[in-house]
Amino acid sequence: MDDCIIIGGGPAGQTAAIYLARFHLRVRLIDSGDSRAALIPCTRNHAGFPDGISGTDLLERMRAQAARYGVDHEAATVDRLEVADDGFAVGIGDRALNARTVLIATGVVNRRPRMGDALHDAALARGLIRYCPICDGYEVTDKRVGVIGTGAHGMREALFLRGYTRDVTLIAPGAAHDLDASCEAKLDEAGIVHVDGPCERLAIDGDRLAIETAAGPMTFDSVYPALGSDIRSELAVAAGARHNGEGCLEVDDHQRTSIPGLFAAGDVVKGLDQISHAMGEAGVAATTIRNLLAERRPLWR
Q1: Which pLDDT does position 200 carry in this prediction?
Q2: 194 with 177: CB under 8 angstroms?
Q3: I want to staple 242 with a disulfide (CB 3.0 to 4.6 A). Which of 112, 135, 250, 301 is the partner?
Q4: What is the rounded average pLDDT of the residues 131-145?
């Protein structure tokens, strides 16, 4: 039996694996291979990398570090999570793995604008599509920026980006904006243009991304989809873990969910969706897991 099974191979999961392995615990990390961090062409917001680092390179470094300490890394997708008498059963196909504790680090999935995968990935690699203004808003300083979104969420993202550039346009993803008078007033005060959709026929036009809107074709240096995200918490929710209306898992100050022995860290938990934040939560969770196991039996060498 493993001391801990970590579900999710992003920054939170890999950080927890390193901590737990260095506590001389038996750790298995199950990675479906679709961490959102892998989509980052280059982050210059993560401390310690002054020239920036790609998400894939960062994850590879973390995997190599975890492997150095004996973490059992398995490429697979977990189908089910069940509470057992002595811990948990983690299902992968027709197999069931057992662990004393489990850490959920499954993250979230960004909702994408209506465009083909190949076009989306090409635009993302070139910085024409961006998803995190906290991470890379600096890179669009004084550039022409589009935000695909509406309502209070779209307004807040557009206003956040207004701190980097005067040229911000909020484009409705559907036929018309869903903006109340308060939202419109705040956008107008900031000088943010808002145009109706539908937002369609996206295409790469030289060094810009072109979008067909109700106001005609528009081009941008970068476009931020503000369409929300889907929380990948279904395994824990099915097991009975408490969550909020969005699906984010509820945890205490030590990353404990409502199910004893089940922990969560990273974007699957409500909080700041940042690599550094996920890593910090993972360190807290891993240390709490170690201390919990030490209460059950001595962890002596």
Answers
A1: 80
A2: yes
A3: 250
A4: 96
